[in-house]
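Example record for the data management plan.
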Amino acid sequence: MPELAVVTYLRGEERLTPELVDIGNRLHHRYPGLVMELYVESTGPVPAPGAEFPIRVTHVSGTKYRKLLDALQGTDHRYLLSLDNDIAADIPGLLSLVTQTVGGDFDLGWGRVHSRRVSNFISRLVEVDKLLSHTVLRPLLWRFHLGGTIPGQCFLLKVASFQGRLPGTDTFLDDLSIGLHAAKHRLRYHYAREVVAFELPSYSFAALWRQRLRWATGFRQCLSCASLTRQDRRLLWTHAFCYHLLPILHVGALAALAPHAPLTCAGWLGALALAITRRRPRALGAALAYPILFPIFHVGWWLKFFHVKP
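Corresponding structural encoding:
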């Protein structure tokens, strides 16, 4: 049985990026049986200049989760590496993740995903949000068996552990459905502390707002799954509390305390910013503003969540 297949997804008129072709070539040198399962929504040809590996193109629309379920159902490889088309890999980090996950026979593997360096302020806030999620929240929750999400931009699945086992309910949040299944069944996972990929962050307030609304819709879709157990719901609500409610409570507490203890609040914000950006000090300025400004997007998440019909 061949070891590895790469799965990626093109929306609308997107084209396969040179970065994805380069990743495929490098992995193909290590795993000669590698193929790329490419899901596209357009009907035209998909050029892939320089590709040294076979590409199987499937023309289909719908969510990434639906496409991933199709890839799991049709593959004869041991592992699937799911990659978003807009990422740039840290090649040594990604190769290490694949080698350790496949070599260790883990059910699931992921590493840290950071934002690419973009100059505008919203993108800097997203960079801080990624640092908090990928270096603090997610590792901590998984360590206490409360993890319910993985980084959807780049992850590895052992096919035998997920084929025919994931919920059939469609959702925008493939990362949450996969993480929930892995957490509930205590699957063996490999978390690489290295950065494995960089994604292109949102450039504008409107784009980031729309993204959070999609996430709220996806969370509601996950909650509507008929097969959810009490443990599933506990993990889902833990995720919602930590990722989307805690930041609002935090800024509310700061607003209440600031008139009485301004220096304490300022010191806390400084310490928090230093802790989040300890591996990326250039993001310190945005990290100081992040706890105060970013909760507005979590407010939007909750407004959309309560507005979406079950």
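Summary line stored alongside the record: The CA atoms of residues 54 and 254 lie 55 Å apart.
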